[in-house]
Specification:
The protein has 259 residues and is α/β, with parallel strands linked by helices. 41% of the residues lie in helices and 24% in strands.
Length: 259
């Protein structure tokens, strides 16, 4: 099978702490992969490493056949590798549409826009981007909020806005760090359906969350990390009954009781 992303022997230390240690995993084209593990397992660090927010101590990240291990985040985004953040990152004093536009540009033009936008080619690009963002907002049900202050939207919709911002960069793969944390059951189901629709567009998804009902109802495959290392991988059914995984989440006594 064609691997869009390959992570090999990835390591990241913070001082003496091994936040990520010798991690190997792959993500196929069109796959939804869940990256799970207890608090502090290293999940967000993996997203930071793969998307270029921080550099690894050692190891390699290959995306679509290219070694991107040391590439800047916006250059990875230009190749189609894009993320959302664990907490919502909407700007409260901007409308939903302004937020989505800002995100669309920031992924590609982190150096700022004002100089860039003085040319006519840039104005064409601006018009195309605005139309694209409007289409995405309609597609994911945010169009009625377009001119609303982003922080006034229900929290679930703010999470959806994070996904719109990521999609505006026209990714081939998105990393979603805790997209349903703090959401109601109904909002969670809505985000799950949204992610499935994203995948139907051919976009691969790596999703991190602590909500196992959400993760197992969404993901084709799971990778489980604990203390920076991969301890299991497989289908949700396989992984969630694995004694090593139960032990990592609940402690040794529980694994024995379940076993
Ligand atoms: N910039 C940093 N400096 C020092 N230590 C860090 C840094 N970032 C993360 N860590 C540490 O690395 C470990 C892994 O953190 P990380 O945030 O990746 O975990 P996580 O799996 O995302 O946890 P959670 O489920 O709570 O979000 C933790 O012990 C954390 O304290
Ligand atoms: Mg995290």
């Amino acid at each position: 099978m064609n691997h869009l992303l390959e992570v090999k022997q990835l390591c990241r230390q913070f001082g003496g702490l091994h936040a990520v240690r010798n991690l190997d995993f792959e993500v196929s084209d069109g796959e939804i992969l869940g990256l799970i593990g207890p608090n502090g397992a290293g999940k967000t660090t993996v997203v930071n490493l793969v998307t270029g927010m921080i550099l690894p101590t050692s190891g390699q990240v290959t995306f679509n056949g290219a070694d991107v291990t040391k590439l800047a985040p916006h250059r990875r985004a230009a190749l189609g590798l894009v993320r959302t953040f664990q907490s919502t990152t909407v700007y409260g004093n901007q409308t939903v549409k302004e937020n989505a536009l800002r995100g669309a540009y920031l992924h590609r033009y982190p150096g700022g826009l004002s100089a860039f936008f003085s040319t006519s080619r840039a104005r064409d690009l601006q018009k195309q981007t605005t139309e694209k963002v409007e289409r995405l907002m309609t597609w994911l049900g945010l169009e009625q909020f377009a001119d609303t202050d982003a922080s006034a939207m229900p929290y679930g919709h703010q999470k959806t806005l994070g996904i719109v911002i990521a999609l505006a960069a026209e990714p081939r793969m998105i990393f979603l760090d805790e997209p349903v944390a703090g959401l109601s059951a109904e909002e969670t189901d809505h985000v799950r359906d949204t992610i499935k629709r994203v995948r139907e567009q051919g976009i691969s998804v790596v999703v991190i969350d602590h909500n196992m009902r959400f993760i197992s109802g969404l993901c084709d495959r799971l990778v489980v990390a604990s203390q920076g290392e991969k301890i299991a991988q497989g289908t949700p059914q396989e992984v969630l009954k694995n004694p090593l995984v139960i032990e990592a989440y609940l402690g040794k006594g529980h694994a024995a009781a379940q076993g």
